[in-house]
Amino acid sequence: PGLVLLLATSAFAASKGSLVLDEAVTVSGHQLTPGEYQLRWDGAGPNVQLNILSKGKLVATVPAQVVERKHADANDAYNTDKKSDGTLSLTQIKFGGKKYALALGDQSATTTPAPQKDSGSSTSNN
C-alpha cells in the first residue's frame, strides 16, 4: 500500500510530459498525426484523465492508467498495437528518466522510441 501511495503522489506531482509521434496512431478513437504533442493528466491514484494537446490546442481527452516500471528508459518512447485493419493504436507512453508510464487501452504492444534528430528505425525491441 505504501508503494502505491508513493507512486500516486509522484505521478500527480509530475502530471505533464511530451510525446513526439513519427507515425499516425489512434488513441480511444482519436486520430493523431505525426508531430509533437503536450500531455497533461489529472487524477489521484493510478486512473487519470489524459489531455493531449497540439500547439496548445486540446485534441483528445482519454482515460489512462499510471503504471510503475522497474527501470526508467533513457529516452521518451511509446508503444503501439497494430490492429487488424492495419492502423496503429497508441497503448503506452514512456518518459525518459522516469519509472512510470501511461497505459492506454490494450497492453500488448510494440515499443517505438521517440524520434531522435538523426531519425533512424521507427521500431525497436525493449
In short:
The protein is 10% helix and 48% strand. It has one helix at residues 2-13; strands spanning 16-21, 25-27, 30-32, 35-42, 47-54, 57-68, 77-82, 88-94, 100-103, 110-113. The strands form two sheets. Strands 1-4-5-6-9-8-7-10 form an eight-stranded antiparallel beta sheet, with helices on one face.
Please describe what this structure looks like.
This protein has one helix and ten strands. It has 126 residues and is mainly beta. The chain has one domain. The chain has an eight-stranded antiparallel β-sheet with strand order 1-4-5-6-9-8-7-10, covered by helices on one side. A hairpin with a 5-residue loop joins β8 (88-94) and β9 (100-103). Residues 1-13, 106-111 and 116-126 have low confidence and may be disordered.
